[in-house]
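Fold this sequence, please.
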Amino acid sequence: MSLQLPYEGVEENFSQLINNREIYDTLSNTLRNGNAVVAGGSVLGFYSDFTPKDIDVFISRQNAEQLTKLYSVLIDNGYVLKTILENIHFPQGNMVTAILSFRKPDGITIDFLLTEEDDVIDSVRKFGLNFTRCYWDGRQTFMVDEDALESFLNKSGELSSEYTDYLLQTMDKNIILLLNKYNDRGFNIKYERKSFEILEYNPEFLSPDYWLRTDIQVLTKTLKTIILKIHGYTNIFTEFFLKNNGNVEDAIFDCLRVMSDRQKKKILNQSFQEVGFSQNFVNFFPVDLQKFIPSNFIITEDNDLLTVGEPTALENKFLDNVPEECFDFIVGEEKILNYIQEAENGVSIVSGNPENYKATCFEKSSLESMLKDAKFSYLFYPCMYENNMSSANKNKTYFKLTLITGTVYIPVEDMMTLLENEEELYYFQYTSEVKHSINVGVYNNRESMVSAYHCQEGSNLSVGKLFVVRKY
């Protein structure tokens, strides 16, 4: 049962500490109206001989939107959001979803700590030091453990067994700093499990990262970091963060929604360049944002990533004597019109001499499977010099495609456009011969060193480009 502490003068002391009536009034109203408290040393200071250096406002994450008014008042009064930390884990299963730290040169630091607890007092109960488990709810001040009051008055206390074990295992810097702080204030700390000498803070005692992050968490952190670096978006992100009750992912999505399409693509492109790409990322984004995922990536069946140029807009080309039939390497000859109507996303590519055009038919699913082959078997880089793999030009990638008129190599950007387009009839026009080439799989050490595939004689490519002919 919580013990109510003497309250006389507390409000006046808090008001003087904040030194801004508007901020104090908004803070106290927030505490009274929401599942929020000021806790820990911020409260202890009014019953001791030390002055708090910051004010820690704890609130249940599901009520984070109630901090929006306080956030706006802080910004209006010159405070700046300096730090946003996520998923801070503490012993005893105590988890802070995020910490937002607001600072001002001539003002006290104010931190918002969003907890996973439905009842924010449960988070206070899990503090490591028994006498720090106290709080102000805007009306009264309380100490969670009645016995802890005597410890506080005698400047003694206990670190819980969970925190002691965690400290022994990890030498967690935050716990060490906490203990050093109260030792400096004259407190004598006992340990429920084992007594040992307090180690002074040293960088080598930084705790290991026990909290494994999934690929989605890594992407989320990267996106948030990039967004916060954009001028003006610290405030925008924070408003959305609070509006979405501390949900970082939803805050990121809302930030992207208010950006221009060009900004969206740029930020997503930068984030994927930094963290790589996983097919999980596509489903991570809401449907309305998926279309802004950069298209200059080829993701293989094994989720490997190859960066290429942006898909190109294909030019139109009028052809006389377009053949009526096309050749499919599986089913043989068919009427182009029938194939287009019956096949699943069928396309036809015309090639050859104007006097005798030939057409080859494909299902888009087959072409896409070839493009995303796990070994990059159908992708090639041109080489500047014979027998010199380091001369491969990775800025150009060609897709190997066998037509009825022979094997050709098409810029991969053209193929990506073909897969995205609704057009169904294309023309391949030969443009040049690349004398030496290397298979992308070989270059990436994914394939055996077949001589014709690594810049040697005989690795020439018949290169061309695609045109849109017409749509049935």
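The longest strand covers residues 80-89. Residues 124 and 133 are 5 Å apart (CA to CA).
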